[in-house]
Amino acid sequence: QAQLVESGGGLVQAGGSLRLSCAASGSIFSIYAMGWYRQAPGKQRELVAAITSGGTTTYADSVKGRCTISRDRASNTLYLQMNSLKPEDTAVYLCAADRVSVRYHPDHWGRGTQVTVSS
Fold it and tell me: Which regions of 1-119 does DSSP assign to beta strands (E)?
């Protein structure tokens, strides 16, 4: 019954903003660590941002100052606010969750949402 569904991706010009959403089914995710990965063709999968069940956040150096991860337990939704987007941010963004940590082989994944940033 555990399921993650992303939305909010799209095409945006450099310097623009997007807010990605990840709807999590199952209340078990409220006590899971969650995060956002991104995967671009020819590049290694990268953890963009993570948030623990207690609300502690971490970010990749490449997005620090431009992205904010948050979670709304009332709606069971994870968010990634992305500002000042750059062409190198172009990738499929995937929501992930794990009972312990998302920084090493998360157990649960969404299918991804495409973010394309034009120059």
Answer: 3-7, 10-13, 18-25, 33-39, 46-51, 57-59, 67-72, 77-82, 91-98, 108-109, 113-118
How far is 99 from 97, CA to CA, in rounded Å? Answer: 7
Give the β-pairing of 113-118 and 91-98.
antiparallel
Coil, strand or helix: which one is 32?
A: coil
Q: Looking at 25-29, 52-56, 69-73, which range is the least confident one?
A: 25-29
Lowest-confidence region among 25-29, 55-59, 64-68: 25-29
| Interatomic CA distance for residues 112 and 7, integer angstroms | 8
> Over the stretch 23-48, which tens digit does the pLDDT of each residue have?
999 777 888 999 999 999 999 999 99
| Cα(81)–Cα(108) distance, integer angstroms | 21
